[in-house]
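As described in the Methods, two query proteins were run sequentially through the folding procedure within a single session, without resetting any intermediate state between them. The first query and its resulting structure tokens are shown here.
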Amino acid sequence: MIYRASPGDGPVWITGASSGIGRAVGLELARRGFVVAVTARRSDALVALVAEAAGLGGKMAAFPGDVTDADAMAAVVADIEGSLGPIVLAFLNAGAAFADPPDVFGGEGFRRTFELNVAGSANCLGPLLRSMRARRRGQIAINASLAGYRGLPQGIAYGASKAALIYIAESLQLAETANGIRVQVVNPGFVRTPLTDRNTHAMPFIVPLEQAARRICDGFARGGFEITFPRRLAWPMQAMRILPHPIYAWLVRRLMGS
């Protein structure tokens, strides 16, 4: 049976833990008794998070770092495993959307989005996989999005980066099962976070942050490949993945009014 992490097995590592989904999942896992190592660039935010987690039942420790720095992530993994023990569950959550001006395609915002969301995840996966393969045990969850299912005319860089993460997770799940490593992908819809608070467009069936954290952690415990919610949005989006492109394009244009 492929591995699923339990609180007594060892530490959990969460990237992008200073705010939003990463922060909420860290607190929820601490409530469930896990030892949680949290990483983000903002060390002050991590200190505040560790203080908030005190007394929840588990234990939390801060390991600041920038996921876009591959050497730094290798050092963070080594530091966590040297001080807390081998990482049994990693939630690779760090991500954002950086916008370019309306008349620019493929600019600085596009590059930064891919550097953080895709290359940042790869920088974490390298040292994690080396460690977990050696032990033939581990669990990795990559935070992608329903936006990565198919092309949409808005947020192209963000959606494309999430599509890349879904592909990475699917490929690793096929490859790493033989090594005893469980790979999952988290595909949420809209979640109330500082990132979505900047949106001006409609966000149907938006999920409160704490509820999203519970669903993600339940998915870690349950196993399975994909953790997705809310069903009212996820199921129609999943159905749209199998539509022929002409039908899909017609439907999207009708829904978006263009």
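Immediately afterward, the second query was submitted; its sequence and tokens are:
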Amino acid sequence: MHDIRSVRAEPQAFDAALARRGVEPAAGRLLAIDTDLRAVQTALQAGLARRNEASKAIGAAKAAKDEAAAQELMAEVAALKSRLPDLEARERELGDALAGELAALPNLPASDVPEGADETGNAVVHERGTKRAFDFRPLEHDAVGGKLGLDFDAAAAMSGSRFAVLKGPLARLHRALGQFMLDVQTREHGYTEVVPPLLVRDEAAFGTGQLPKFAEDLFRTTDGRWLIPTAEVSLTNLVRERILSGDELPLRFTALTPCFRSEAGAAGRDTRGMIRQHQFEKVELVSITAPENSDEEQERMTACAEAVLDRLGLAYRRMLLCTGDMGFTARRTYDLEVWLPGQGQYREISSCSTCGDFQARRMSARFKREGDKGTSFVHTLNGSGLAVGRTLVAVLETYQQADGSVHIPDALHPYMGGLNRLEPQG
């Protein structure tokens, strides 16, 4: 959410930043509403002040036995009481309109974000790891997993498309990946593990930017709650409507949760396999920082996600997303893309974004520095550390063998109960 004061101060710069994201100018529209709102607020304040002043004067007039003056003042107070509710209603109407307009606009990109209309404008920051050389033609994960306990037919029979059933040792490998990721982030990188709600109210989804713009991408329950599309929603809202002390920052949270997405805008994309599903698990990373530390924290968070890929021996690259490919709430985003030899291409496995104070304004999340009289909005960051299903896809494709088996990366051996290899079933 944007601060109308910054729009007033630099309307041209605001529109120029929106233009970088392909959004039409909005400053003129916002300032017109703001001007009307401030005029109504001024009239309302003046009316309230005059009503109070006149009410006091009535008593003085009556004490002086000046009945004519008292009657005149009483008539004025009655007129004001009749007019003020209309001004109050107009103030609410304009305030809601301005808030709605501000909430519908995406975050402004950082100055170092490259311009571009879509993913073709993204920039490679670095590549890590070695792509495995195969002496046979590598298969895609659905072909590899189909012999190891990956069952799309059973899932479709009970739930429809974009679901999967994992069975036996393959299910254990999926669980092992999530536990390994949590252990790396909590034991080595200082994140606090959280078990958060999977159902949230409108206010929580609004706070992190899912509502109102992306309601169709979410699943809603019959009692009006929303299934989380990512634990970012729950973890970031831990500081909702709070005033933190400066020495509490940074806060770093992580959670392994199921995530639920309708994939409303993904018709025809990734209909095979586990890349894009309605239900999946992900280890989420969230940081709450002071403004001056948020850029450094984004680098740290992204490195924490990369550490998992490094330990699993997976080849990947870090991408700096362009203005046209960033998410709604992001000020800057790094995508980590893992190499999938079966597909012969890189695929996103993590996004790590800094949101500045964009979400904090929507949540009213502030902090107070020692010695300061006022408060400031915190900065929020979020990232995947990692998407478990997509990591499983990468492991299956990278470590597949010619006989259909899959080697298990060394880092996962402690989580696999002695298994170091998945063998085809039947």
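The chain has a mean pLDDT of 94. We note this only descriptively and draw no conclusion about the first query from it.
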